[in-house]
Write a structure and sequence with these properties.
The protein has a single domain, classed as Hypothetical Protein Pfu-838710-001 (Beta Barrel), CATH 2.40.320. The chain has an 8-stranded antiparallel β-barrel, surrounded by 5 helices. Strand 6 and strand 7 form a beta hairpin. The protein is built from 6 helices and 8 strands, in the order βαβααβββαβββαα. By secondary structure, it is of the alpha+beta class. Helices cover 34% and strands 37% of the residues. This is CYTH domain-containing protein. It comes from Candidatus Kaiserbacteria bacterium RIFOXYB1_FULL_46_14. It holds the Pfam family CYTH.
Length: 234
């Protein structure tokens, strides 16, 4: 199966805006609930050999995980490679864009996110040994919620402040992933997210502004990583 992530971000900025969103979701769905709370360290990498990375991590993946990763590498484009510590779990994350954005910041992506045994530092070294260099390190506290059949993540990000992510994940058969019907499924999921965001009165963070924020953070990440500092980029 191919896992597609359809994700739309809304920049809330201040804590009171985050609380307003939570109140609206609680009022709008009787089944609204928090599903998890976690703290994350996310390390972004660039400019390496993606096939060498697959080789380096292959002994740490189950056969079905390795098959999924290889398929994303074969069919995707503009890869984003990350390592993540989510509470005590360590994960390898590889994303590939399937729309007009980049794999780091876009709406629809092929996604590989799987737990691995090495520590975060050890996994970083495996990535670096494939020629990748660290682009930036990010930290955030995340609460995840279920709202009207989708996942809503409320993040307190270093640099960005409060950010909401509205996400639908769709699993499609590998052999059918490029067919018109599946493109329709992705478009339908995006339309559903747009409707929910409109109901809640939150706006999508434009891709061009997100790219400017992302660029500023990457250039200055040591000033923000692990802190509560926030910047504003229009």
């Amino acid at each position: 199966m191919n896992t597609f992530e359809i994700e739309v971000k809304s920049l809330l900025g201040e804590e009171n805006k985050a609380k307003e969103l939570l109140d609206k979701m609680a009022a709008g769905d009787p089944d609204f609930k928090k599903t998890s709370t976690n703290r994350q360290l996310n390390h972004y990498f660039e400019d390496g050999d993606i096939n060498k990375l697959v080789e380096n991590v292959s002994t740490h993946l189950k056969p079905e995980q390795l098959e999924k990763l290889k398929h994303i590498i074969d069919t995707g484009k503009d890869f984003s490679v990350r390592t993540r510590q989510k509470n005590e779990e360590v994960l390898l994350v590889v994303k590939a864009s399937v729309d007009e954005g980049t794999s780091a910041n876009t709406v629809s992506r092929l996604e590989f996110e799987e737990r691995v045994e090495p520590s975060l530092d050890a996994l970083d070294e495996l990535v670096k040994s494939a020629g990748f260099k660290c682009q930036a390190k990010w930290s955030r506290a995340r609460d995840e919620y279920k709202y009207k059949g989708m996942t809503v993540c409320l993040d307190k990000n270093a640099g960005y402040g409060y950010l909401a992510e509205f996400e639908k994940v769709i699993d499609l058969p590998v052999e059918a992933s490029a067919q018109v019907g599946d493109e329709s499924a992705l478009a339908s999921a995006r339309a559903e997210i747009d409707t929910i965001m409109k109901e809640l009165g939150v706006d999508e963070l434009p891709q061009d502004r997100l790219e400017r924020m992302f660029s500023h953070y990457n250039q200055n990440w040591p000033d923000y990583y692990g802190t509560d500092k926030v910047f504003v980029i229009e």
